[in-house]
Amino acid sequence: MIIWVNGTFGAGKSTACRELVELLPGSTLFDPEEVGALLRRIVPGRRMAEVRDFQELPAWRSLVTEAAAALLGEVPGTLVVPMTLLRESYRDEIFGALAARGLPVHHFVLHAEETILRERIALSEEVPGDPAASERCRRWRLAHLPAYQEAQAWMHRDACVLDTAGLTPRQVARTLAALVKEGVARCPIVRGTDSADDTVAAAVLLFDEDDRVLLVDPVYKPDWEFPGGVVERGEAPTLAAVREAAEELGLRLDQEELRLLAVDWEPRVGSRRGGIRLVYDGGRLTAAQRAGLRLPPDELRDWRFVTLEEAGQLLSAGRHRRLAGALAARGQGTPSYLEAGRPAARGVGSGW
Predict the structure, then answer these.
(1) How far is 323 from 227, CA to CA, in rounded Å?
(2) pTM for the complete prediction?
(3) At what angle do helices 131-143 and 114-123 cross, to 10 degrees?
(4) What is the rounded CA–CA span in Å between residue 206 and residue 240?
(5) SS (H, E, C) the chain
(6) What is the CA radius of gyration of the chain?
(7) Contacting residues for 274 by C-beta, under 8 A, at least 6 apart
(8) What is the pLDDT of residues 152-195, one digit of tens each?
(9) Buried b (16+ CB within 10 A) or exposed e, 32-46
(10) pLDDT band of 39, cuts 50, 70, 90
(11) What is the spatial distance between Cα 227 and Cα 295, in angstroms, rounded to a whole number?
């Protein structure tokens, strides 16, 4: 389990998390700042000059996930992570990768009004014994307060918010421990898995009157997706596609009207599972069906109809190739077999 404590600089994350580790037996403190410090030492200066903050480095976001998973492999239990994430896309990327590993995440935001934050920052001694360095740190933290104000909309919607005004670090830690026990901050989309094997997944493509395809924006993934998901044990793939359309969109589809467009073998990448991906044609949605679409707020943020070209800006490269192959098969009226989104067999046609 991971307890991710978010919030701007000066909210008291580090001190509260040190107290929390003392309260939770078997817990370990993991500060992603140390990953950033490592990258500052080993990434060439020319690359570091291109970013304003180490969080902008894809390597940092990837290594944070890998390090968290590796630590839990070494010392199973609870990982307490005090880390500011002000960009929703970074939260999506990191939490999505943790979700892919089946790691439950409890997401908190420690909050205080700006006047309190400014007072805390002004009184802090960031680098003991080095007044000049401390002043630089204080200026840097103050400069990031506007970014926190802008980020509050998604952060306060996504996480369990705890106002720390008037609370000691020990009181904050005790409150966090109680909230973790209640489960109120657990990210609903981060689910455990009973298998590390490759999977079978089913997706359904839905179209508007201009033949644009519907994509959805998952809460904890950096890229958009097709409606669909993993086929459960003993479930037919067509039934999985129907079930996912109902769960994700509130849409009732007829299993018998689905038409198979493509079978794609997705290779395993690192710890991310691969497997067989089936893509179905769910047909065109009427105006009434489009008006009736309903998204589960804990899983999906948005939906939209896009062209194949527009989808290239939203989907991962592999999924965009899969979409292109499925749309080509739709135009030809014949299912296609793909591997990593690329045509891999000749002669697939009316014999299916």
Answers:
(1) 12
(2) 0.64
(3) 170
(4) 15
(5) CEEEEECCCCCCHHHHHHHHHHHCCCEEECCCHHHHHHHHHHCCHHHHCCCCCHHHCHHHHHHHHHHHHHHHHHCCCEEEEECCCCCHHHHHHHHHHHHHCCCCEEEEEEECCHHHHHHHHHHCCCCCCCHHHHHHHHHHHHHCHHHHHHHHHHHHHHCEEEECCCCCHHHHHHHHHHHHHHCCCECCCCCCCCCCCCEEEEEEEEECCCCCEEEEEECCCCCCECCEEECCCCCCHHHHHHHHHHHHHCCCCCHHHCEEEEEEEECCECCECCEEEEEEEEEECCHHHHHCCCCCCCCEEEEEEECHHHHCCCCCHHHHHHHHHHHHHHHHCCCEEEECCEECCCCCCCCC
(6) 23
(7) 198, 199, 265, 266, 267, 268
(8) 888 888 888 888 877 888 998 999 888 887 777 877 665 444 44
(9) beebbeebeeeeeee
(10) very high
(11) 11
Would you say how long the chain is, in residues?
352
Quick one: average pLDDT of 121-139?
69
Helix axes of 114-123 and 145-158: crossing angle, nearest 10 degrees: 120
Tens of pLDDT, residue by residue over 217-276, are 987 777 899 999 888 888 899 999 999 999 899 999 998 899 999 999 998 876 567 899
Domains in the chain, please, with CATH? 2-182 (3.40.50.300), 199-343 (3.90.79.10)
**Rounded distance between C-alpha atoms, residue 53 and residue 325, angstroms:** 39
Q: Which two tokens stand for residue 110?
A: 């420690």
| Mean of per-residue pLDDT scores for the chain | 85
